[in-house]
Amino acid sequence: MSAATGEIIGPESPDWKPPPRGTREHARLNLGFFAMIIGMFMAILDIQIVASSIAEIQAGVSASAEEVAWIQTSYLIAEVIGIPLSGLLTRAFGMRLLFVSSALAFIVASALCALAWSLESLIVFRCLQGFFGAAMIPTTMAAAFGLFGAQRSILQQVMVGMVATLAPSIGPTLGGWVSENSSWHWLFLINIVPGLISAWLVWTHIPRSTLRINLLRRIDILGLAAMALFLGSFEWVFEEGPAAGWFEDQHLVMWMTVCAFAGGVFFWRSLTQDHPVVNLGLFADRNFALSAFMVTIIGLGLYGTVYLMPLFLGQVRGLNAMQIGFVMSIGGLGMFLGGPLAGILIRRVDPRYVMAAGALLTTIGLYWNHFLTSESDFQELFWPQLLRGAGIIMAMVPANFLALGTLAPDQLPNASGLVTVCRNLGGAIGLAALNTMRLHFNNLHTQELAAGLDPARPEVQAYIAAAEQRLQQLGDPNPQATALAELAQRVQLESAVMTYGNLFYVMAVCFFIVLLMVPLLQKPRPRPAPAAAH
After folding, report:
1. Sign of dihedral through CA atoms 52, 57, 62, 66?
2. What is the 3-state secondary structure (H, E, C) of 319-384?
3. Contact assessment for residue 150 and residue 228, using Cβ atoms and an 8 Å cutoff
4. CA 448/CA 457 separation, integer angstroms
5. Residue 269 and residue 74: Cα distance in Å, rounded?
6. How many angstroms separate the Cα of 20 from the Cα of each of 27, 30, 147, 281, 404?
7. Using an 8 Å Cβ cutoff, are 397 and 166 in contact?
8. How many CB atoms lie within 10 A of CB 141?
9. Within a 10 A sphere around the Cβ of 137, how many other Cβ atoms?
C-alpha cells in the first residue's frame, strides 16, 4: 500500500515492483498467472471448438446450414466487441477482479450454451460467452508484463504466445473428438471445472488493486455504442462478404454503410475525448503501431492456415477428420519447439532478429505449401507445417514484446486489448479475403483447364480412349460417359490444387512484407524504474 495515497499498489500501478525470484510471493504470482493462462486458453479455444461439430449442433437445435453458422459468428462478434473494453475495465476494477468476474460469467454462459433449447437461445448464450470471456485474453497478456516486468517476463510471454497460436489450431480437432465420443453439449460443459479452478487460483494468488469505479462515470457512452456497432458490423460484413458476393448483396451493402459511419464516429470520439473508451493515441508510438500491424498479419497467417489446410487435406487429398488432425498437429509440434526457442533468443539477442527469423520461417513454410500437389503425402506435408508452426510462434512472441514491452503499466491493459483486436481482425479480414480469392482463382483455373481440353486434341482423345478401355474391362455399362465425368472431376481437382497454391503464395508474400518491415522497428529500451513512494 502506498504511504502517500493509502491506495493498494496493484500490478497496474507505476509503483508496483515484482517480487524477487525464488521467493514465495514470486511462486504465488507464477501459479496465479498460470491460472490466467488456463482462462485465456478456454476463451480462444471456444472460437474454433465448434468448427468440427457444426453438423451435430445443427441436428441438435434443428437449424439450417446457413443459420447454424451464427453459432460461431455470434461468439466472434461479441468477443471482438468485448476485448477493447478490457483496458477501461482493468483500470476500474483491477486485473484480479476483472479476470475472476469474466471467468465466472464465462462458465455460466458455457453452461447455458449446453442447456440451450433452440438455435435462438444458443446464439444468445454464445454471444454472452464470447463477450464475458473476451476480457480474459488481453488481461492475461497485460499480466505477463505487469506482474513480472517487461525484462523478466519472457517465459510468461512465451506462454501467452503459445496459447494464442495453439488454441485456434487444436480447437477443431478437440471439438471433433469431444462430439464424436460424447455429445455436442460437452463442447461447452468442459469449460466448467478448469474455469472454476482458474478463477479460484487467480483470486487467491494475484494481488488485488484499488477500485476506481469513478472511471466508469466518465465513460463515453456515444463512443462505446459506436465502437460496438463498428466492430460488430465489421466482423459480420467480413464473415458474410465472400458468400454474399460483397457489393452484390444490398443487405450487406447497408451494413457496410453502417460500419463506415459507426467507425467514423468511434475514431472521432477516441481522438477528441479526454477519457475515450479506447485510447488510440498508442498508435502514435512507432513500435506499437508497426507491431500491431505485424500482429494483424500474424492473425491472417494463424487463422488462414487453420482454415485452408484442413480444406486442402479434405477436398484434395480426401483425408478424414482424424488424419487431418494428425497433419495439423505437426504445426502444433513446431509451436512447441519454436516457443521456448523464441524465449531463449529474446533473452540473448535483439528481439527484432527473433521477429525476422520467425517471419522468414513462416514465409518459407507457406511458400513450400505453394508446391503441394494432389499426390502430396505426409513426407511432403511435414516440413512446411513444422516451419510454419515454429515461425508463427517465433514471430508472435517478439511482436508482443516489441508492442508492449516498453509501455507504462497503466497503458498495458489498453494496449494488450488493441493488440488482441488487431490479431482477431487480421484473422477476420484474412479469412474473408482468402475465401473471396478462393472462389475467384477456382473459377479462373477451371476455365483455363477446361479451355485446354479440346476434344480434337490428340492428348485428350488418348486420355479418354485409355479411360474407356479401362472402364470396359471393369464392366462399366457406359464407359464413355464415365470417362468424361472422370475427366471433369480431374479438372476440378487440379483447379483446386492450383487455387490453394495461389492462396498459400499470397500468405507467404504477406509474411515476407513483415520481414521487410522489421528494420523499421526500434530496439526496445526498458523504462526506468519508478521512484520509490514516500
Report:
1. negative
2. CCHHHHHHHHHHHHHHHHHHHHHHHHHHHHCCHHHHHHHHHHHHHHHHHHHCCCCCCCCHHHHHHH
3. no
4. 15
5. 26
6. 10, 12, 12, 33, 22
7. no
8. 29
9. 31
Residue 10 near residue 207 (C-beta atoms within 8 A): yes
Q: How many helices (H) and strands (E) does the chain have?
A: 20, 0
Shortest CA distance to 122 belongs to which of 107, 109, 131?
109
Instruction: Look up residue 83 and give its three cell numbers.
Output: 476485448
Chain position carrying cell 453438423: 55
Cell numbers given for 205 = 494468488
370-386: b (≥16 Cβ within 10 Å) or e: bebeeebeeeebeebbb
Length of the chain: 534
Query: Residue 430 and residue 428: Cα distance in Å, rounded?
Result: 5
Residue with cell 469474466: 102
Q: Please, what is the Cα angle at 279 between 159 and 288, to 5 degrees? A: 50
Determine the pLDDT at residue 15: 63
Max Cα-Cα span within the chain? 95
Lowest-pLDDT choice from 66-80, 264-278, 380-394: 66-80
Separation CA 296–CA 331 (nearest Å): 20
Minimal CA–CA distance to 310: which of 289, 290, 293, 331?
331
Give 80-133 as a DSSP string: HHHHHHHHHHHHHH-HHHHHHHHHHHHHHHHHHHHT--SHHHHHHHHHHHHHHH
Please determine, for residue 10, whether its predicted confidence score (pLDDT) is greater than 80.
no
Say if residue 534's pLDDT is above 50.
no
Mean pLDDT over residues 143-153, rounded?
Answer: 74
Alpha-carbon distance of 376 to 325, in angstroms, equals 16
How far, CA to CA in Å, does 359 sit from each of 102, 239, 287, 337, 518?
Answer: 34, 27, 17, 16, 9
Task: Report phi then psi at 374, rounded to 5.
Answer: -70, -10
Q: Hunting for cell 479460484 — which residue is that?
A: 200
Q: Which residues of 233-245 are buried (b: 16+ CB within 10 A; e: fewer)?
A: bbbbbbbbbbebe
